[in-house]
């Protein structure tokens, strides 16, 4: 087991969420499912792209907030588009600048890798234009960022 493992608290959807998340990323799988005395799922271990996670069915006491999010580096617009569509489906919510909440309320940042390169350009005017374009977006569009950069 990894030394540090994100541990996610769900009301009662831990197994459903783990199944959903593992369907999104390569090199992902369910590890184990621990059950309580009545056979109900208590804890699910799983991996996303090789990163270990644990999910607990802890009841409705705690919910997710934007204070924690998962940042996903995407190499292509197609990857951004696919993850965005799947994570916002069935009750997910779009936010700004590549942020969204999935149907379980967990926050994600779906970010094209090129964004960091453009925003760190030595030409401050180019970087500023990219930032201004980004601030107008929900889902990030690489072509729009490149237009602003030029």
Characterization of this structure:
This protein has 150 residues and is α/β, with parallel strands linked by helices. The protein has two domains: 1-62, 2,3-Dihydroxybiphenyl 1,2-Dioxygenase, domain 1 (Roll), CATH 3.10.180.10; 64-150, Roll (2,3-Dihydroxybiphenyl 1,2-Dioxygenase, domain 1), CATH 3.10.180.10. The protein contains five helices and eight strands; from the N terminus they run βαββββαβββααα. The strands form two sheets. Strands 1-4-3-2 form a four-stranded mixed beta sheet, with helices on one face. The chain has a four-stranded mixed beta sheet with strand order 5-8-7-6. A hairpin with a 5-residue loop joins strand 7 (99-101) and strand 8 (107-112). The mean pLDDT is 97.
Q: What's the CATH H-level superfamily name of the largest domain?
A: 2,3-Dihydroxybiphenyl 1,2-Dioxygenase, domain 1
CATH hierarchy: architecture of the largest domain: Roll
The level 1 CATH classification of the largest domain is Alpha Beta
Number of strands: 8
Q: Could you say what the CATH topology of the largest domain is called? A: 2,3-Dihydroxybiphenyl 1,2-Dioxygenase, domain 1
- Note the run of SSEs as H and E: EHEEEEHEEEHHH
Q: Reading side by side through the largest sheet, how are the strands ordered?
A: 1-4-3-2
Number of domains: 2
Characterize the largest beta sheet: strand count, sense, and whether it forms a barrel: 4 strands, mixed
Q: Please, what is the average pLDDT?
A: 97
Apparent shape: elongated
Query: What ranges have pLDDT less than 50 throughout 5 or more consecutive residues?
Result: none
Distance between the termini: 46 Å
Report the C-alpha radius of gyration, rounded.
18 Å
Structural class based on helices, strands and sheet pairing? alpha/beta
Task: Assess the beta-strand content as a share of residues.
Answer: 25-35%
């Amino acid at each position: 087991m990894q030394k540090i493992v994100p541990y996610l608290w769900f009301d009662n959807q831990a197994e459903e969420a783990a199944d959903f998340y593992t369907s999104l990323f390569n090199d992902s799988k369910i590890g184990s499912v621990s059950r309580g005395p009545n056979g109900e799922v208590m804890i699910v271990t799983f991996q996303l792209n090789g990163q270990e996670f644990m999910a607990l069915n802890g009841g409705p006491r705690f919910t997710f907030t934007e204070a924690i999010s998962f940042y996903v580096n995407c190499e292509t617009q197609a990857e951004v588009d696919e993850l965005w569509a799947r994570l916002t489906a069935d009750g997910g919510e779009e936010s700004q600048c590549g942020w969204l909440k999935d149907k379980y309320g967990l926050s994600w940042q779906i970010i094209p890798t090129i964004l960091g390169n453009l925003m760190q350009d030595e030409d401050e005017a180019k970087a500023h234009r990219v930032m201004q374009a980004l601030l107008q977006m929900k889902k990030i569009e690489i072509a729009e960022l490149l237009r602003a950069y030029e």
